[in-house]
UniProtKB/TrEMBL annotation:
Top-rank EC class of the record's enzyme: transferase
The name this protein goes by in its record: 5-dehydro-2-deoxygluconokinase
Natural source organism: Metabacillus endolithicus
UniProt entry tagged with the keyword Transferase: yes
Gene giving rise to this polypeptide: iolC
All copies of domain Carbohydrate kinase PfkB, residue ranges: 12-314
Pathway: Polyol metabolism; myo-inositol degradation into acetyl-CoA; acetyl-CoA from myo-inositol: step 5/7
Function as written in the Swiss-Prot or TrEMBL entry: Catalyzes the phosphorylation of 5-dehydro-2-deoxy-D-gluconate (2-deoxy-5-keto-D-gluconate or DKG) to 6-phospho-5-dehydro-2-deoxy-D-gluconate (DKGP).
Length: 330
């Protein structure tokens, strides 16, 4: 099965949600308490996905709210210079700050993120700042789950989803679940299921689908797809870390993508690089099995590097890794 996009659209992908700062530990293999220096990168899951898409040659745009400060200006400039259309960034004029993510790399298996996200500008995106004319110029609207965690950003997302549906723009929902952004699991499940049920494609880890279904123990992929296929989704991707990922189609096909062997430096960034290359492949007309390979190869490259955004690979790097065919059998 292949996904059909509106090929007359100027943008391949418009992402909506947060564009923030990652501060990644320079001295790794040690706890944060002992880390003295950090490198600055653009971060935030949807921004990373837009950057990854742009590096792969897609025409990407972004809708979001930036702080009126040095970090906000750094983010806008970085994204613009990488080729992303930044005209639909709104600058906050109420003193809200840029979200920061400090990353700790204790070992390749033990990484964590310390987020500073109190009163961050991105969650103040207002529905009135979501432009219908802009959304209808794209093949895809990429919605990040964290942007649903608070109003007014939550309503801005719901408006964007409804405009996308009205104008035949495919809605891709990246669950991007960050527990600390939410009041409680019931709230998450309400908004996650609301948007997932309206999306064309849903991408997330098994844990994230458990949050969507408000489960306390691990659910079964079969139950998840049976539920979501009663609604709009035509393609559901469920990721299982190093064990790889599965894609399910509404017509009943199941595909497995295996992870590629690599020298892992840190595990974060995998999901965003996976999403950008998976979507690149689908937009380029490749079949789902091939798209899983692109996503997995891209993730494998990014986990071997220091950042999530700057490290996003080129098509050539991804294809070279797929060609080597050194997958992980778990
Ligand atoms: N240690 C690893 N080595 C190689 N590839 C990996 C590794 N961990 C994850 N990946 C790849 O990244 C994809 C996404 O990772 P996962 O951890 O499931 O998502 P997320 O980063 O969103 O939590 C996986 O499906 C796999 O292809
Ligand atoms: O999404 C964020 O706000 C932080 C990211 O920029 C960070 O690089 C990260 O956590 C990415 O992880 P992923 O979700 O595993 O791709």
């Amino acid at each position: 099965m292949k996904l059909n996009f509106n090929h007359d659209r100027e943008f391949d992908i418009i992402a909506i949600g947060r564009a923030c700062i990652d501060l990644n530990a320079v001295e790794y293999n040690r706890p944060m308490e002992e880390t003295m220096t950090f490198s600055k990168y653009v971060g935030g899951s949807p921004a990373n996905i837009a950057i990854g898409s742009s590096k792969l040659g897609l025409k990407a745009g972004f809708i979001g709210k930036l702080a009126d400060d040095q970090h906000g200006r750094f983010i806008e400039k970085y994204m613009r210079e990488i080729g992303i259309d930044t005209t639909n960034f709104v600058v906050d004029n109420e003193g809200h700050k840029t979200g920061l993510a400090f990353t700790e790399i204790k070992s390749p298996e033990e990484c964590s993120i310390l987020m500073y996200r109190q009163d961050v500008a991105d969650l103040y995106l207002d529905p009135s700042e979501v432009n219908e004319e802009y959304i209808k110029r794209s093949k895809i609207l990429l919605v990040s789950g964290t942007a649903l965690s608070k109003s007014p950003s939550r309503e801005a997302m719901l408006k964007a989803v409804s405009l996308a549906k009205e104008h035949d723009v495919k809605v891709i929902f990246e669950l991007d679940y960050r527990p600390y952004s939410w009041q409680n699991p019931e709230e998450t499940a309400v908004y996650y299921s609301l948007v997932a049920e309206q999306s064309d494609v849903v991408i997330g880890t098994r844990d994230e689908y458990d949050a969507l279904e408000n489960r306390t123990s691990e659910g079964k992929n079969e139950d998840t797809v049976n539920y979501l296929f009663k609604h709009s989704p035509e393609l559901i991707v469920i990721k299982h870390g190093v064990e790889g990922s599965y894609a399910y189609t509404k017509s009943g096909e199941i595909f497995r993508g295996k992870a590629y062997k690599t020298k892992v430096l840190k595990t974060f960034g995998a999901g965003d690089s996976y999403a950008s290359a998976f979507l690149y492949a689908l937009i380029s007309g490749k079949d789902i099995e091939t798209a899983l390979k692109y996503g997995s190869a891209s993730a494998s490259i990014v986990v071997s590097k220091h950042s999530s955004s700057e490290a996003m690979p080129t098509v050539e790097e991804i294809e070279a890794l797929i060609e080597k065919n050194e997958t992980i059998s778990v």
